[in-house]
């Protein structure tokens, strides 16, 4: 029995190590120096903090969100902090044409693209689903379809640079919580889409990394405000540290990061990992790669 327990614990340790490697210790801020990065939802909250950290690391930045006045302040702060260059493109991600244009314009402004950080979300209303399908569609456009639109526009540039896509998601895209059906649907959709795309890129030997960032409660103004009086006895984690972990995950090309680290355990699903591995074994990869081109 003791031997069985030992074997089980060793296997568990190995699986955890495999899943969460590489360790974040090897991160160096210079990795971002001169890199060309787009950050969405950067007028406030976590996105704003990501922009400031990247600026300190000497990256070229294009930031976007709807509020022009806030974006102007963000880029002027970024330039003071040491950004190699900083531009802003204001607009709404509800408009998918705008989403695509942000990528093409940013590519022209920076002369290419190394990292796309997808972070924006529509303002969250915690409420019971009231049958309003149009509002769900709007949230899906902003929180999901704009991500895919930008990804699709960025792939050709990222192929050239062996670049990275960083997708900011939530524990609410892994576990079920009430009052946020629209938000949660979009986050689960992001997980499904980007996890599948990750595998496709691997199969086609395309060297673009995708990092899915699973976040718990973070102390941004909007989150604290909308959860006040609804969710109690949880201390939010700091947005500044959260932003660093997101950048590290992207720079180290990790498949998934979780912040705060206490939420790793609720995401860990070894049965799923093993099943995914065996499902992939049933695919005739040679046939697929011969007949299909990754566009
Ligand atoms: N804070 C938290 O507790 C958690 C956050 N996350 C994730 O982290 C990310 C950032 O969250 P957080 O910083 O709290 O969010 P904020 O609400 O603080 O910021 C959201 C950003 O998105 C922008 N935005 C809103 N609507 C639109 C739109 N229609 N088009 C373009 N941009 C828009 C906002 O700017 P503007 O209004 O100017 O457009 C703002 O810059 C999100 O992906 C979220 O899901 C995940 C788990 C927990
Ligand atoms: C209640 C959850 C925390 C559980 C824990 O033990 O830590 C929160 C974790 C993630 C939160 C949601 C989220 O993803 C961000 C949104 C941000 C909005 O501004 C507020 C609502 C959120 C949907 C938020 C709701 C609580 C969490 C699920």
UniProtKB/TrEMBL annotation:
Pfam families: adh_short. Keywords: Endoplasmic reticulum, Membrane, Oxidoreductase, Transmembrane, Transmembrane helix. Its main location: endoplasmic reticulum. PROSITE patterns: ADH_SHORT. It is a single-pass type II membrane protein. It catalyses: an 11beta-hydroxysteroid + NADP(+) = an 11-oxosteroid + NADPH + H(+); chenodeoxycholate + NADP(+) = 7-oxolithocholate + NADPH + H(+); 3beta,7alpha-dihydroxyandrost-5-en-17-one + NADP(+) = 3beta-hydroxy-5-androstene-7,17-dione + NADPH + H(+); 3beta-hydroxy-5alpha-androstane-7,17-dione + NADPH + H(+) = 3beta,7beta-dihydroxy-5alpha-androstan-17-one + NADP(+). One of its GO terms (molecular function) is protein homodimerization activity. GO terms for cellular component: endoplasmic reticulum membrane. It comes from the Eukaryota. Its EC number is 1.1.1.146, 1.1.1.201. It is found in: Endoplasmic reticulum membrane. One of its GO terms (biological process) is steroid catabolic process. Homodimer. This is 11-beta-hydroxysteroid dehydrogenase 1.
């Amino acid at each position: 029995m003791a031997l069985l327990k030992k074997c089980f614990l060793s296997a568990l340790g190995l699986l955890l190590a495999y899943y969460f490697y590489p360790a974040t210790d090897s991160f160096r801020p210079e990795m971002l120096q001169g890199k060309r990065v787009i950050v969405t939802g950067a007028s406030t909250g976590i996105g704003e903090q990501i922009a400031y950290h990247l600026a300190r690391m000497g990256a070229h930045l294009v930031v976007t969100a709807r509020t022009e006045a806030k974006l102007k302040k963000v880029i002027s702060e970024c330039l003071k902090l040491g950004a190699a260059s900083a531009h802003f493109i204001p607009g709404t991600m509800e408009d998918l044409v705008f989403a695509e244009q942000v990528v093409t314009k940013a590519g022209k402004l920076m002369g290419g693209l190394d990292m796309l950080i997808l972070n924006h979300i529509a303002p969250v209303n915690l409420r019971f689903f009231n049958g309003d399908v149009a509002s769900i569609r709007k949230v899906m456009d902003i929180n999901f379809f704009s991500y895919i639109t930008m990804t699709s526009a960025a792939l050709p540039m990222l192929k050239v640079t062996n670049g990275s896509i960083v997708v900011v998601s939530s524990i609410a895209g892994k576990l079920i919580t009430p009052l946020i059906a629209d938000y949660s649907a979009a986050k689960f959709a992001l997980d499904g889409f980007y996890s599948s795309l990750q595998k496709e890129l691997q199969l086609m030997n395309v060297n673009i990394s995708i990092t899915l960032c699973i976040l718990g409660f973070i102390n941004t103004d909007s989150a604290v405000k909308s959860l006040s009086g609804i969710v109690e006895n949880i201390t939010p984690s700091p947005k500044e540290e959260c932003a660093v972990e997101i950048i590290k995950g992207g720079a180290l090309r990790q498949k998934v990061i979780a912040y705060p680290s206490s939420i790793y355990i609720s995401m860990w699903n070894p049965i799923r990992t093993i099943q995914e591995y065996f499902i992939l074994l049933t695919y005739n990869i040679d046939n697929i790669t011969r007949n299909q081109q990754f566009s």
